[in-house]
Design goal:
Blueprint (H helix, E strand, L loop, with lengths): L1 H26 L1 H8 L2 H22 L2 H11 L5 H25 L1 H5 L9 H15 L2 H9 L3 H25 L5 H17 L1 H7 L6 H11 L2 H13 L1 H8 L2 H11 L3 H21 L5 H31 L21 H23 L6 H23 L1 H26 L6 H21 L5 H17 L5 H7 L2
Helix pairs in contact: 1-9, 1-16, 2-9, 3-7, 3-13, 3-15, 4-5, 4-8, 4-12, 5-7, 7-10, 9-10, 13-19, 14-15, 14-19, 16-17, 16-18, 17-18, 17-21, 17-22, 18-20, 19-20, 21-22
Length: 479
């Protein structure tokens, strides 16, 4: 069992290194935008990217998940057919949708809550969505074939090109927010070129009726599920825009992005987790392995949460070499939402962990109900809480929806693929995170760095005191 978890950790580390480096470059957009753009301008960028996230689901129509399932088992069709069918399906669908957005950009401006002076942003959005959609299956192919180094290199190239283009256009040439999207188009286009090799190698023009039917039956539930999932992540921006203003959205988005530190860990785990549980599902001790993985995941997440909760105020105040801070002072008013967003990502990570049972037992039909209910909770909570609590209400709405997703998938996965998790350890870890947040609320008005350090040491030390993680296991694990 230890060897299996080591294997997962190795892949997680490779994916994680690229993800951390890539997300770090991506995170550098925050000091660029918050020090050079007004909150209202940044709010427009945040809002459009929220719509991009939602529309991605319509462009990929759930076929990435279908590719993973059937390409890993080859229960229908050849290897090339399992690549070509989802790839061509996404390509044709994305081409039609992108063409509509591109040629009727004026008509879509109102839907995107964008003034006509930013109409060109809609055209760039159409290109971004198309390029990103047609790279989904090639990226999934690299993950399934255990080629994390190549996957990582291409992802890093994408983000590096995007970052450098932003530096050139925004910092050096002092262009407007349109060039945020132009930079993304350039990076996404280059990514398509870098992924041509697996496409050329695996593409074939055939039609396997059985495979096509199986793909659609498995993948289509991911459309409403994916829409709901993305609504949970981004719908608060458009609602905030409607109920407040672009400035509030800009401040919210800058601080929401500080959740990147937890999102990094969750993302790197997710990249390695899906291929891992699919390939180890038939192992005799699979369920015990999955239980241990949940505890290990939550232990690391708890340490990250406790550290960032206490020290996020100090992190954002780090001065930049020339002028300004890691996050512009105009955006500091929203720092209180960061721990809420971090905790939301913790529950999202637990949701990803529990996806194993749904995948293994082919019960994806339940996903739309789970994510749909969570999305509904999110929308209702946003409209209920934002008028009274502003951006804090939007953050709480996000947390509530992720808790709902976690609860829903726990019930479904345990029904069809019961795993005996280490519940006592999970409860202790969640309690430690809640205590750290309560302590943060009490001491944050006072600049007491030494008190924060003492709290951090005490709470993280409790993980070993309660034997959630055994030092002997760590020594064995690192051999």
């Amino acid at each position: 069992m230890l060897d299996k978890i080591k294997s997962l950790s190795k892949d997680t580390l490779i994916y994680g290194t690229s993800t951390i480096l890539g997300r770090f470059l991506n995170f550098l957009f925050v000091p660029i935008y918050t020090n050079l753009f007004l909150p209202g301008e940044f709010g427009v960028v945040a809002n459009v990217y929220a719509y991009i996230a939602i529309l991605n689901v319509f462009f990929t129509i759930g076929l990435e998940s279908g590719y993973f399932k059937f390409a890993s088992t080859l229960e229908a069709g050849t290897e090339k057919e399992n690549f070509s069918h989802p790839y061509l399906g996404i390509f044709l669908n994305a081409f039609v949708l992108s063409s509509l957005l591109f040629f009727f950009s004026k008509d879509f401006s109102a839907l995107f809550q964008v003034s006509l002076k930013y109409e060109s942003v809609i055209k760039y959005t159409a290109l971004i969505l198309f390029f990103d959609a047609i790279t989904v299956v090639p990226f999934a192919y690299l993950r399934l074939k255990h080629r994390p180094y190549r996957f990582a290199a291409i992802r890093l190239a994408n983000i590096a090109v995007n970052f450098l283009s932003n530096v050139l256009f925004i910092v050096v040439l002092r262009k407007g927010i349109e060039y945020v999207f132009i930079s993304n188009v350039i990076a996404s286009g280059i990514t398509v070129i870098l992924l041509l090799s697996p496409v050329i190698k695996n593409f074939c023009i055939t039609f396997n009726k059985k495979l096509a039917g199986e793909l659609l039956r498995f993948s289509l539930p991911y459309i409403p599920a994916g829409i709901s999932s993305n609504i949970i992540q981004v719908i608060n921006r458009p609602i905030l825009t409607a109920l407040t203003n672009d400035e509030t959205v800009g401040i919210f988005q800058a601080n929401y992005r500080l959740g990147i530190f937890m999102m990094l860990f969750v993302s790197m785990f997710e990249f390695a987790w899906r291929p891992f549980f699919l390939q180890n599902a038939k192992e005799p001790d699979a369920k015990r392995i999955f239980s241990k993985v949940m505890t290990a995941f939550l232990s690391v997440a708890a340490v990250i949460f406790i550290f960032l909760t206490f020290f996020i105020d100090d992190i954002v105040a780090i001065p930049l070499p020339n002028r300004g801070h890691l996050v512009g002072k105009a955006y500091w008013a929203g720092l209180s939402i960061v721990p809420i967003i971090l905790l939301a990502y913790v529950f999202y990570g637990m949701y990803i962990n529990l996806m194993a049972g749904i995948y293994i037992e082919k019960k994806t039909k339940y996903l739309p109900y789970i994510t749909g209910a969570a999305a509904l909770i999110n929308v209702i909570a946003n409209f209920s809480l934002i008028p009274s609590f502003g951006m804090t209400g939007a953050a709480v709405a996000t947390l509530l929806s992720y808790i709902a997703m976690f609860a829903g998938i726990y019930i479904a996965s345990q029904k069809f693929y019961k795993i005996d998790y280490e519940y006592n350890k999970i409860v202790i870890l969640i309690v430690l995170m809640v205590i750290s947040y309560a302590a943060y609320l009490i001491i944050s008005p006072y600049d007491l760095l030494y008190v924060k350090i003492l709290f951090f040491i005490a709470l993280t030390g409790s993980i070993f005191i309660f034997k959630i993680i055994n030092p002997k296991t760590i020594r064995q694990f690192t051999k």
